[in-house]
Amino acid sequence: xxxxxxxxxxxxxxxxxxxxxxxxxxxxxxxxxxxxxxxxxxxxxxxxxxxxxxxxxxxxxxxxxxxxxxxxxxxxxxxxxxxxxxxxxxxxxxxxxxxxxxxxxxxxxxxxxxxxxxxxxxxxxxxxxxxxxxxxxxxxxxxxxxxxxxxxxxxxxxxxxxxxxxxxxxxxxxxxxxxxxxxxxxxxxxxxxxxxxxxxxxxxxxxxxxxxxxxxxxxxxxxxxxxxxxxxxxxxxxxxxxxxxxxxxxxxxxxxxxxxxxxxxxxxxxxxxxxxxxxxxxxxxxxxxxxxxxxxxxxxxxxxxxx
Amino acid sequence: xxxxxxxxxxxxxxxxxxxxxxxxxxxxxxxxxxxxxxxxxxxxxxxxxxxxxxxxxxxxxxxxxxxxxxxxxxxxxxxxxxxxxxxxxxxxxxxxxxxxxxxxxxxxxxxxxxxxxxxxxxxxxxxxxxxxxxxxxxxxxxxxxxxxxxxxxxxxxxxxxxxxxxxxxxxxxxxxxxxxxxxxxxxxxxxxxxxxxxxxxxxxxxxxxxxxxxxxxxxxxxxxxxxxxxxxxxxxxxxxxxxxxxxxxxxxxxxxxxxxxxxxxxxxxxxxxxxxxxxxxxxxxxxxxxxxxxxxxxxxxxxxxxxxx
Lengths: 307, 309
Description:
Chain A: Its main location: membrane. Chain A: Residues 90-296 form the ABC transmembrane type-1 domain. The complex is a heterodimer. Chain A is an all-alpha fold. Chain A is 76% helix and 0% strand. Chain A has helices spanning 3-22, 27-61, 75-82, 84-117, 123-131, 138-149, 154-163, 167-170, 176-199, 204-212, 217-246, 249-254, 260-267, 275-297. Chain A is flat, with a radius of gyration of 26 Å. The two termini of chain A are 51 Å apart. By secondary structure, chain B is mostly helical. Chain B has 2 domains: 55-92, no CATH class; 106-297, Orthogonal Bundle (MetI-like fold), CATH 1.10.3720.10. Helix content of chain B is 65%, strand content 3%. Chain B is built from 13 helices and 2 strands, in the order H-E-E-H-H-H-H-H-H-H-H-H-H-H-H. Chain B has helices at residues 2-14, 42-72, 90-95, 106-136, 142-150, 156-166, 174-198, 202-211, 216-227, 229-244, 248-253, 261-267, 274-297, and strands at residues 17-21, 27-31. Chain B has a two-stranded antiparallel sheet with strand order 1-2. In chain B, strand 1 (17-21) and strand 2 form a beta hairpin. The longest helix of chain B has 31 residues, at 42-72. Chain B starts with a helix and ends in a 12-residue tail after the last helix. Chains A and B meet through helix 2, helix 4, helix 5, helix 6 and helix 7 of A and helix 2, helix 4, helix 5, helix 6 and helix 7 of B.
């Protein structure tokens, strides 16, 4: 079969498929039409609000005039590849968010473990305290960090009163430690939420068997519980890392570490206006997140990735 | 802890020789072997206190800032370690627009809530059908579509940047914000509604309705959707609350008045007093607390897409 014939056959097959979906005669075709109708609203929105803007981002990154979107040029990509600033921003982002993710997931495992296995006295309070910050946007987290660690902050002033040093020297809200605390503040609740779902499905009989056969609590956790919650840990790590990469409000207000979101904002600010570079960074960022998510999801069940 | 202390107590009373008097006057000497339990393992002595310490620390770090902020919104001054001068409603009056201050948060919050409501309604329209299709039917590329629908793949900052360039006229309007919020928050709606559908026997429900003569659209609208009303309601509350304080996308897109709530907070970080800001943030805290209360009322496990079994 020549290429032309095979193309024609493919086109015909697609046309038949489309026409039977539009005017179904069998039950199977009717079902296909139902699926198409049900998915259509989502696709319409995803196209208008998602795919088209992303395509525009690609066009922007290769435009000679990025304001009127005219001409072609690879200037933005060349800048991105050659200037060491951008490599530094990428490295800044990865190590900072990676560290925050590791800390958050470890803390999340501890909290989920305690909630599931121990008889905590104020369990509802703990659950409320751990789930409440999920609803807080980054900007409010930054305000809370300033309220605690800023120059007038509660913690700063308390330490200053105890040690007798000046509160201005102690203030760490706009230092990198304050930002790190802000990241962990946003990420711990998300990690805990995923891990609680995993812990609820752990087989307690296997743990009891291990304990009665003489394993210590640590051995039981390491050899029995940990292998069971490993998918949950993987899912929590993916979700937490992704959420950490997307944090913007916190870092915009505290301004202490150049991560990718802040760099995008800088590229479209007055004085450093380079929308084509901003678009290129945005594309690298999206491609990285999509690749990371899909590679990660190969190792875990999709439906464990929740809020 | 009780399982460790119990054997120790028994062994202490059982050590040595205990003379036992018999009822018939004689006496026997019972020799009880001294039984000393092995010391509890290191992980028992260290592990649990360590985990409890971590949990206490996490809970304190997560809750103290929120509580302190809420409390100090009623204080007169915050110079010094603890806020002083309780109770004043001055800052709440400023924030709620009853005073004559610039810090009135209500116009921005109302604008945000209207837009969040628009996004929520649009989310019901697009989220419920696709959640049904993904749960009920098996079809080509279902898994890919599922991932696309429940994993937010484009971050708000990048979407905002692209949005403004693609739709220079409408991107910055309320309509643009509604479309953006809807897409950014749609995973939460799809997930909650999906988990609601998963707990129902969809095929049987649909077949009963169809065999009783209902058409397929009527089955979906009057039988399937009402059955999932709790999931839909939970999804509405979550998407609405999250959209009300969305910042990343809003900041990149918005340019005009009134400023949406989160952008308003950002612009006023330098010119508002700490207590005014505390009051403004507390307004949102109250919103989230009521959202969580309603969610728990309809059987959700708090602010999450996971449902209690």
